[in-house]
Each structure stands twice: as C-alpha cells, then as structure tokens.
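Risk register update: the risk that structure generation would not scale has been downgraded. Supporting records follow, first protein first.
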Amino acid sequence: MANKPAELLLDHIGLLKSLERSLPVLDLACGNGRNGLVLAPLGILVEFADKSSESLTVVRRRLAKGNLPGKVWQVDLEQHEDRVFSGKHYSAILGFCYLHRPLFPGLKEALMPGGLVIYETFTDEQQRFGRPDNPDFLLRPGELKTLFENWEIVHYFEGTLENPDRAIAQIIARKP
C-alpha cells in the first residue's frame, strides 16, 4: 500500500485529466511521490511538496528517468502554515495519509475555482487498528466533510477498509 498509488486517486483519475492544465496539481506531503508520479505520464504538471530532502531526491530521479513534467518544493508544511501557500495556485490538491488542520484554510485558498481536492486520511477509529493513533493526526467523525461543506462533493466515504485494515475518510470536492 505504501508504494502503490492510492486507489481513490486511480479510481477518479479521469477527473484530473479534464482540469485546466496551466496550473499544477499539488501532491501534499508527497513522500516518494507515489500519487503525483501517476499523473506526470499523463502530461499533468505536478508540484511535489515534502519536508524530506531524501524523499524529494527520489521524486527528482523518477521525474528525470521518465522525462516527466514536475517540480519539487521542499517545505516544512507545519511551519508558517498561515502563509505557506501564499502566492501559490493549483488546479487540484492531493492529500493522502497526512493531517495538519491549520493548513486547510490556505489549501482551500490556493485552489482555483472549479479545482479539485482529493483527500484521504485516517479517522479516530484507526486507533482500533494501530498506528497512527495520535488524535492530533486523526479526523473526528464527519470532520473532513465539514471542512468542504460549501463545495460540490463528488465523492465521500468514511469508514473502514481492508488489506490492510484501516479507518479512513475520503473526499473529492470541487471548489465553487
């Protein structure tokens, strides 16, 4: 699971193909780029954001090896979160297995009208299955849907999945 692209992204990749191509897609806290690297071969410009220089080096190598469009942004998303996205604009934002609540206002602002957020992370029910188990990194019931309550909800799921067992919330929402 950790190295494969998220099923949520793969199941809805067609939505991203139809977006405005002049702005990049942000792969938030991208790690080794497992999600954004699925989009790059489709000609979609992806900005890979992560704190880890090691992870971004892996992304750079994969982009270069495939001669793929993309750029990396080394950033500590949890520092200066109130302005980390200042001046940034995206056609879509991908967020998987990462939660830092103070980022959401800036993320929502950085997304262009009509743009998509595709987000999946763990809920507080995850504590039944193991890590992560810190409530600061787990969504409360209905929290993800509430964050995007005034947006068009294209997809929403909150519950448990198997292989591996995990408790998650997923959303795909279009900014008005």
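Supporting record for the second protein:
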Amino acid sequence: MLPTPDSLDLIIRVVRREALDVVSLELGHSDNAPLPPWQPGAHIDLHLPSGLTRSYSLCGDPQDADTYRIAILRVRPGRGGSEEVHRIGHPGTRITASRPRNSFALESATSYAFVAGGIGVTPLLAMARHVAFVGRPWSFLYGGRSRGSMPFVDEIGSLPGGLVRLVPQSEAGLPNFTEAFAALPAGAAVYCCGPGPMIDAVLAAGASIRPEIPVHLERFSAPGTSGSRDKGGAFVVTLARSRVTVSVPAGISILEAVRTACPTVMSSCEEGICSACETEVLAGVPDHRDSVLTPAERAANKYMMICVSRALSTHLVLDL
C-alpha cells in the first residue's frame, strides 16, 4: 500500500531484542523533531518497502515527545509483515508510518487490572506506565509460553505501585482468570490483549464472576464469526470524493471492490481488528462485522471497517 499524504517519514534509531523472536524499534524524525502526541492504547501503521502495511501498538512513554517505540513478534508462518520488519529493522533504516490512532483508549476507573498474553503486553505496558505515574492502584497478570518468550517483564516489574503476576505456561500452566476477577475491587476496569482463546477465557470468567466490571479488549485476530464474507448479498457503494460507484458482489469485501477504483485505500489486518480501513459512512446502513467499534459506535453508523463489514441497505455512500 502507498502511504497517505499525512504519513510520517521516520528513521529507526534503536533496535533491541526483548524476548525470543521479539524485537523493539525506537522510531523518530532524523532531526529529533517532536512527533504527533499519543495516548496509551494507540498504535501506528508501518508502510513496509514490500507494500505491506502492518499495525503495531505504541509501548513507549507518551511523555517522550520525539520517540515512538513498538515491539514486533516474528510470526512463523505468518503473512510476511513481521518477517519483513525483523529483516529490515536496523538502526538508520528509514521507514514510513501513520500518525497514531487509538481504538483501545484507557478510560477513567478507580483501579485497573491488565491482562496480557504474549506480545499483547505492548499496549498494556504503556497503560500500566501511565496508571503508575498518576498513582492509581493497578495489577498486571501476564501469561506466555515461557519466561524467555515474554517481553518487557523487567520493565513492568519496575513500575511503582502495582501487583505483577507472571504466569509462564512452561512453569505454571494457564492463568486463573476466575481467581483474578474474584480479587478485583469495586470500580475496577479490566484491559486485556492477547490471543483469541485467552480473551475468550477472560470474557467468560468476567461474565461469570464479576459481570459488573467492564472488560476492554484488543484482539490479535478476529473472532470466528467476525467478517464472514459468505453471508449477505450484493450491494453497491458510491465513493463520494472519487465520484465512482462500484458493485460489491457476495463473497467480495468492500475493500476489494473499492480498490478496483481506488487502489491506495488504506488497510492492514483485513480482519476488522486494527481500524486502519475505518471509513466514514455518508449514507446507507452498514452491517458491522468488525471487532473495533463499540455498540454505541455501531448504532451511530458513522464509521465502518470496510475490510470485513458489509451493508444492510442496497446502497452505501462512503467518504472516499
């Protein structure tokens, strides 16, 4: 994919090995100019030399105005993005990135419980750092395959005021989410990021033990029912700025259809979990199939993820 006009031209300053198959990159302007600000939970898209676009959570310190830090797990086999980042990730390499976006924002609560699985620690690290800085009570339950595969263990442990529990599966089995929810005080909020089975287990434990406690989550991959392309008939989409109308057949995503007219439309995960393809809806009724929008945002029908969502009306008008 081609970068958007407001993309950032950055340079990789520092590369660190954080765990097995995990490296972190520190990015900034070559002249150390300030970067656009961000808040915990935000991510950026890297526009890779191959044309791929991949989203990565910011895991550094928002107070560091001239540095973005991300961490990348090499996925084997994967879709190629993580392998490419590991291959080109050297100090001095220039790379293009989007401005930060946040669909996993940290909301106000009296205390916080962070639940991470593997590389899902990245957005939660920035959240825990912020919560520790403002002096709110917090806990961090962190699971992984083995201790050596879990990045940022020491960094989390050094944050003040929190209760950190590490659960490497090779040593301690799986985390006990039922026990974790039972111990939460009233007014707590849970923030969870990790693989699908872990998230499903957290949601089940919360609903069973403490249904009054909100669980905010970010997924690595879409749930099995999200973005199903084999359900729903054909419809048409008008691209208002491009003044083009395209047909979207059954089994073809809006993104695929739109790219026949606008090949540079942004996307990354193409599973409805990263918000890179979020598009404003000017008319028509979307059939939301993403894992990003809240129920209120879905009801408003102002935006949709065109990589997986479809239409309940016969015609959509999009701001493209």
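The chain has three domains: 8-97, 111-219, 235-318. On this basis the risk owner (M.S.) recommends closing the item.
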